[in-house]
Amino acid sequence: MRHISILLLKFITCLIAFAVGLDLFFDATIVDIISFSLLVTIVSYAIGDRIILPRLGNSNALAIDFFLNYTMVWIFGSVLLESYVQIGWGSLLSAFLITGAEVIVHRILLKNTDVTVQQKAGFNPKMAYGMEMGEERDPRVKR
């Protein structure tokens, strides 16, 4: 049930962001907005929230979500929309808005679901060894 509410929150966020980014400033149809929202919601949830967030953490997942949203709208916008200015500015503005909302979505995901961020293997000072020094023997020199 939690995942359905997260998907619904992401879908509503994408609807608002694409309505602002693509329809408020430019001329996009409601079908374009709903199709972009559905595509971005599913792909962003599957890649960003279920794969990237547990492995790389919140800030890396936000950066990847931004570029993922931007490229998805850019690629599929070039198929559905006519104006390159509309595609460029609409994808940039909507990617910023969606990334701003993803901060809240990631906090909810990390707090309420079973998503845990894996700890990175860092430097262990107990395993720090001193430097070994040795001489290399030249096979040509006889002793």
TrEMBL record:
Q: Which UniProt keywords apply?
A: Membrane, Transmembrane, Transmembrane helix
Q: Which residues cross the membrane?
A: 29-48, 60-81, 87-110
Q: Which Pfam families match?
A: DUF2512 (PF10710)
Q: What is this protein called?
A: DUF2512 family protein
